[in-house]
Design brief:
AMP-dep_synth/lig_dom; acetylation; EC 6.2.1.1; 30 strands; binds magnesium ion; binds adenosine-5'-triphosphate; seven-stranded mixed β-sheet; alpha/beta; ATP binding
């Protein structure tokens, strides 16, 4: 029952012949929800950039290799992953590969289930023979004048072994939980790898989170130890992390101790019997810590989702499948080769940091850069200065950062030598074509391929992404599935798969892949409800998407955020991208609100470029602009100028809050624990548009 891999050349005949016998639900007379052609912005979205011959030549995969590997991965997942699982060192090799069920009432996902391995040994020990003196981690501190550190694989081994013995000293053993609440310092990497080494399950909590959020995550996982630091420097200011952790401990009900890293030497108080300095314990323990033998299906970590659509979910990832997929995507998506310098700007508090700062790169023996600071400190050239200084080859960031930097002017980019850049990546939200073009033209000088990677905390690694030497890209499209991924587009109400090449609806994944989440920590029922109950036998992503005439996938926004204007369903992404295409606009978010005639109207929140005046004339101009860019139905009914938009701590726009404001319902804003700047919301409420 395989859906055709729409994007493969070998299947062109299937859809250029008008769909053949694959008319699907359209032929059956089921109305297909979604856009008509009138919603497209053809001039923007049909541009294509082919990989250069040189890139294709040296890449791990060119177009033919990708297509052959993709087909093999779908045709026989056991054989494909059985082979690629060998990229890791196994203590006891697996004999079984895939054992997964999405059947209602029996959601059960196992990969490599009889194999054993250790993640830290794969990320460190096995590289000691070939690359003992190669830099594993380049650490770039908040302040450019403080100087970076280069940590070799040999040094990493020593740090992690000691750290692991400290955790043992504090009573942590296999299966115990450890919460990591640290800034972006090397000790965050050591802590994660130390847990992996002794088989403890880590739960990293972003250092920007409040004491309450920390306490909830510690209590939820009954963690034995919380690892924190005295202070966290960021953007020139020090966050009092230890003080926050102390506050959290007032609400922590479990028997938990605290391990403190000295980062700034700031003044803090240690509680006797509960709190310990890392450096003091490290001085006492043995430098030798043999890695624990773990089953492939033993949990590696718990990590909470960003909380964009509601209460964050405690996602559980396991050992073998996760590492196979993280390392393979790191190698192919970024076309990583030995000796290159890879930089992912995410925080280790997000899955992007887990898979593409720590586990994927280190499993591949890469040099990975860890950055403590922010993109705009000391000025908006900081990213590019770091790229120049460390000759970064692959650079991976989020659309929110690209949009922010785009608004600051090109001179910050042009000052620096970015000639080492080979691949540019993006993740986290749909990237507006305007931001994509800026990234491509100004940062990449029109020569560096962009990989727009669509994935989630739940998926562990990239699911839809171009490969630099294989895929022709279109600005704003996440293009094609990675090996082993079977995306399907479903009609939202009926759940029927849309089998025509052009499709728009709900994005689901029809079969398991190795780094799929296994459960929600402590709540398997919520796991089944959230991901497998709406549509049977599928993993439900919660995102809407469209597949275009060339088989390219475009994420249209969250299914929860779909707007229904006079019976036409619209994702948020395209309307927002049309607004961002206007030169006065730096960022935009649209939501639906109740409208007497149309059912729902479109309410747009618009942030302007520096120096732009928020006038009624501009309001009208923007409305008209969207009308000509897309069509009359997408024209915003109300436009509110907003100096800031509510975002999660990971930088995603929280439309559910904007919807509440547009609906005039400020009483219940829902879970705001992951909201970055709560003051933004007060301002939006105060300046709400009257109808
Ligand atoms: P929650 O699940 O708690 O609401 P969240 O979905 O924002 O939060 P994450 O797992 O951090 O939590 O983010 C995954 C989501 O981010 C995806 O479902 C998708 O909506 C969005 N996303 C990530 N990468 C891309 C991309 N390249 N293009 C479009 N959207 C993306
Ligand atoms: Mg989500």
């Amino acid at each position: 029952d395989l859906s055709p891999p729409w994007h493969l050349a070998s299947n062109q005949a299937l859809y250029t012949s008008g769909g053949g016998n694959r008319e699907g639900c359209r032929a059956a007379g089921v109305p297909v929800a979604g856009y008509d052609a009138q919603w497209r912005r053809p001039n923007v979205t049909d541009k294509m950039y082919a990989p250069s011959a040189q890139m294709a030549e040296q890449a791990h995969a060119d177009k033919d290799t990708y297509e052959a590997m993709y087909e093999a991965s779908i045709h026989d997942p056991d054989a494909f992953w059985g082979e690629h699982g060998k990229r890791l060192d196994w203590i006891k090799p697996y004999t079984k590969v895939k054992n997964t069920s999405f059947a209602p009432g029996n959601i059960d996902i196992k990969w490599f289930e009889d194999g054993t391995l250790n993640v830290a040994a794969n990320c460190i020990d096995r590289h000691l023979k070939d690359r003992p003196d190669q830099t594993a981690i380049i650490w770039e501190p908040d302040s450019p004048t403080d100087g970076s550190q280069h940590i070799t694989y040999t040094q990493l081994h020593a740090h992690v072994s000691k750290f692991a013995n400290v955790l043992k000293e504090l009573g942590v053993g296999k299966g115990d939980r450890v919460v990591i609440y640290l800034p972006m310092i090397p000790q965050a990497a050591y802590a994660m790898l130390a847990c992996a080494r002794i088989g403890a399950i880590h739960s990293v909590v972003f250092a920007g989170f409040s004491a309450d959020a920390l306490a909830a995550r510690v209590n939820g996982s009954e963690a034995k130890v919380v690892i924190t630091a005295d202070e966290a420097p960021r953007g020139g200011r020090n966050t009092p992390l230890k003080v926050n952790a102390d506050k959290a401990f007032e609400k922590i009900t479990t028997d938990t101790s605290m391990l403190v890293v000295q980062r700034t030497g700031g003044d803090i108080t240690m509680k006797d019997g509960r709190d310990h300095w890392l450096h003091e314990l490290e001085a006492k323990v043995s430098p030798d810590c043999p890695p624990e033998e773990m089953n492939a299906e033993d949990p590696l970590f718990i990590l909470y989702t960003s909380g964009s659509t509601g209460q964050p979910k405690g996602v559980v990832h396991t050992t073998g499948g996760y590492l196979v997929y993280a390392s393979m995507t790191h190698q192919y998506t970024f076309d990583y080769h030995d000796g290159e310098v890879f930089w992912c700007t995410a925080d280790v508090g997000w899955v992007t940091g887990h898979s593409y700062i720590i586990y994927g790169p280190l499993a591949n023996g890469a040099t990975t850069l860890m950055f403590e600071g922010v993109p705009t400190y000391p000025d908006a050239g900081r990213f590019w200065q770091v790229c120049e200084e460390h000759k970064v080859n692959q650079f991976y960031t989020a659309p929110t950062a690209i949009r922010a930097l785009m608004g600051k002017g090109n001179e910050f980019v042009e000052k620096y030598d970015l000639s080492a850049l080979k691949v540019l990546g993006t993740v986290g939200e749909p990237i507006n074509p305007e931001a994509w073009n800026w990234y491509h033209d100004v940062v990449g000088k029109g020569k560096v391929p962009i990989v727009d990677t669509w994935w989630q905390t739940e998926t562990g690694g990239h699911l839809l992404t171009p490969l630099p030497g294989a895929t022709s890209t279109k600005p704003g499209s996440a293009t094609h599935p990675f090996f082993g991924i079977r995306p399907v587009v479903l009609e939202p109400e009926t759940g029927i798969e849309i089998e025509t090449i052009e499709a728009e609806g709900v994005l689901c994944i029809a079969d398991s892949w190795p780094s799929q989440m296994r459960t929600i920590w402590g709540d398997h029922e919520r796991f089944e409800m959230t991901y497998f109950s709406q549509y049977k036998n599928m993993f439900f992503s919660g995102d809407g998407c469209r597949r275009d005439k060339d088989g390219y996938y475009w994420i249209t926004g969250r299914v929860d955020d779909v707007i229904n204007v006079s019976g036409h369903r619209m994702g948020t992404a395209e309307v927002e991208s049309a607004l961002v295409a206007h030169p006065a606009v730096s960022e935009a978010a649209v939501v639906g609100y109740p409208h007497e005639i149309k059912g729902q109207g479109i309410y747009a929140y618009v942030s302007l470029m520096a120096g732009q005046e928020p006038t009624d004339a501009l309001r009208k101009e923007l409305s008209d602009f969207v009308r000509t860019e897309i069509g009359p139905i997408a024209k915003p009914d109300l436009i509110q100028f907003a100096p800031g938009l509510p975002k999660t701590r990971s930088g995603k726009i929280m439309r559910r809050i904007l919807r509440k404001i547009a609906e005039n319902d400020f009483g219940a804003l829902g879970d705001t624990s992951t909201l970055a700047e709560p003051e933004v919301v007060d301002d939006l409420i105060a300046n709400r548009m009257n109808r």
